[in-house]
Amino acid sequence: MPFTYERTIHFPDTDAAGVVFFARYLSICHEAYEEALGMAGIELQSFFSAAGVVVPIVRSEADYKRPLACGDRVRIAVRPERLADDSFAVRYEMAKLGKVDKQAAVVRTVHVCIASDTRSRKSLPPALAAWVDGGAQG
User: So what's the pLDDT on residue 137?
Assistant: First the structure.
């Protein structure tokens, strides 16, 4: 079962046309990612520095299904997937909430774990690996 995150679309999320600016979808999904990690017990302030790793996004893609506007409520389902010992992807399914929920976007990011000092690939730390392998339950 995926972790879910709900939020309201705010005015700064939108562009001059009054709909969510395309890059803000990634930012909103990243909020959901951080919340999912936190709910899994990963303390964001110290986790990466304590583990000596960074986990940059090396690829992102998005399919926009319907526009979102200021005041809309959305739910983001967060689904991590292991790709290798040192990498994973996260699929975000964003739904516009209403009488009938409607899919608004599908976003996917690919992350690679690297040592913070050498920038060489490194295995996922145990807590992060457990989150990825657990499918973001929460």
Answer: 56
Which of 13, 15, 63, 101 is the catalytic position? 15
Measure Cα distances from 131 to 66, 79, 106, 128 in Å: 30, 10, 21, 5
Q: Other CB atoms closer than 10 Å to residue 116's CB: what's the count? A: 13
Burial class (CB in 10 A: 0-12, 13-18, 19+), 55: buried
Q: Is 15 a catalytic residue?
A: yes
pLDDT digits (tens, 9 = 90+) for 34-60: 999 999 999 888 877 777 899 999 999
- Spell out the domains of the chain, with CATH numbers in brackets: 3-133 (3.10.129.10)
Report which residue type is found at 43.
Answer: E
Q: What is the total residue count of the chain?
A: 138
Give the type of residue at 76.
I
